[in-house]
Design goal:
The structure holds two protein chains of two kinds.
Chain A: E1 3-6, E2 11-14, E3 19-21, E4 23-26, E5 32-38, E6 44-50, E7 56-59, E8 62-65, E9 75-77, E10 86-93, E11 105-107, E12 111-116
Parallel strand pairs in A: 2-12
Antiparallel strand pairs in A: 1-4, 3-9, 5-6, 5-10, 7-8, 8-9, 10-11, 10-12
Chain B: E1 5-7, E2 10-13, E3 19-24, E4 31-37, E5 43-50, E6 53-56, E7 65-68, E8 75-79, E9 88-95, E10 105-106, E11 110-114
Parallel strand pairs in B: 2-11
Antiparallel strand pairs in B: 1-3, 3-8, 4-5, 4-9, 5-6, 7-8, 9-10, 9-11
The chains are: A mainly beta, B mainly beta.
């Protein structure tokens, strides 16, 4: 099955710093790739996704590009804010046989990001 | 437009008791997924259900755990004879039927503590 490896945290940055959180995956075929964010005491929220090679997902200033050749989906943001402090999860997903849903998602272990003023 | 609703948010049980976790998917969603998050770890898939059917239960422990998603009412994750190792956050997610490339939407989770 798929596996996802994320950069170990925690990551501590000052406000307006550049952020990179590395994510690599192993999988057969071409899964879809996701970044989810989890704020304290809450569930996961989809941050962005990419469904095929060279796709770039983007949302709220965050970006990640589906790199098939390096099996990576690194998350970047040019200028972080205190409000970006959260846990970030990279994940793979595959359509089920009928093509109607992703079935199970496979998550990395999560990276804790703390941004100081 | 309510999201995925899970209850209770926190559940405390003593060893040997039963735990029932409920999940109401988003309106119009007929696919439900359960994940478990152990402390300091990522989410691990447990089971994927559609109305009245278990589609994939490859992540469910072989004993004590069961899940259902009846025609009417919420999805239920049931843990019998709980043990300390069952302490975790359990998340439910849902997605709509018959639509390609639709991501899963997550609830806020149930934090289960075993005394």
């Amino acid at each position: 099955g798929d596996s996802v490896t994320q950069m170990e945290g925690p990551v501590t940055l000052s406000e307006e710093a550049f952020l990179t959180i590395n994510c690599t995956y192993t999988a057969t075929g071409y899964p879809s790739l996701f970044w989810y964010v989890q704020y304290p005491g809450e569930g996961l929220q989809l941050l962005l996704k990419a469904t095929k090679a060279d796709d770039k997902g983007s949302n709220k200033g965050f970006e990640a590009t589906y790199r098939k050749e390096t099996t990576s989906f690194h998350l970047e943001k040019g200028s972080v804010q205190v409000s970006d402090s959260a846990v970030y999860f990279c994940a793979t997903g595959r359509h089920n046989a009928g093509g109607t849903s992703y079935g199970k998602l496979t998550f990395g272990q999560g990276t804790i990001l703390t941004v100081h003023p | 437009n309510a999201g995925v609703m899970q209850n209770p948010r926190h559940l405390v049980r003593r060893r040997g008791q039963e735990a029932r976790l409920r999940c109401s998917p988003m309106k119009g969603h007929s696919h439900v997924y359960w994940y478990r998050q152990l402390p300091e770890e990522g989410l691990k898939f447990m089971v994927y259900l559609q109305k009245e059917n278990i589609i994939d239960e490859s992540g469910m422990p072989k004993e004590r755990f069961s899940a259902e998603f009846p025609k009417e009412g919420p999805s239920i994750l049931r843990i019998q004879q709980v043990v300390r190792g069952d302490s975790a956050a359990y998340f439910c997610a849902s997605s709509p039927p018959g639509t390609d490339n639709q991501p899963q939407h997550f609830g806020d989770g149930t934090r289960l503590s075993i005394l």
